[in-house]
TrEMBL record:
Origin superkingdom: Bacteria
Source organism phylogeny: Bacteria, Pseudomonadati, Pseudomonadota, Alphaproteobacteria, Hyphomicrobiales
Matching Pfam families: FliX
GO process terms (BP): bacterial-type flagellum organization
Region (Disordered): 1-34
Residue ranges, compositional bias (Polar residues): 1-20
InterPro entries referenced in this protein's UniProt entry, alphabetically: Flagellar_assmbl_FliX_class2 (IPR019704)
Name this protein carries in UniProt: Class II flagellar assembly regulator
Amino acid sequence: MRIDSTKSTNAVNGRSNAGRTGNGAAFQPIGGETPARVAGTAPMTAPAELSSLLALQGVEDPLQGRKKRAVARGTDLLDSLDDVKADLLVGRVSEDRLSQLMSLLSEAREQSMPGLDALLDDIELRVRVELAKFGRYPA
């Protein structure tokens, strides 16, 4: 089974005090004096490094590209495994599907997590066994 999103589906609703009016007395500063008004404000200026910050945001992270490729490859592998599972439920595994899965597994993969690599090695071994039943021995 493939999980496409990790975002929560239930939003947390908090209590809102908007629109409530109180019966208590209004705020009165101590001494009863009203504060003096400010004559004016200084104009706001943008930080000098703003353009460099924007340029930095535009640079793509090399790890993001690797992650996108890994996610796309994993999605392809899971789709192919789902097809093989459907064939197994029917009672006959398609040789073409196994060949397709074998070609996906034989692509160069990035060594990232030992547990994941071991799982992919087990899947590849199982596909090789199934192909050997058809008399095909991939290199």
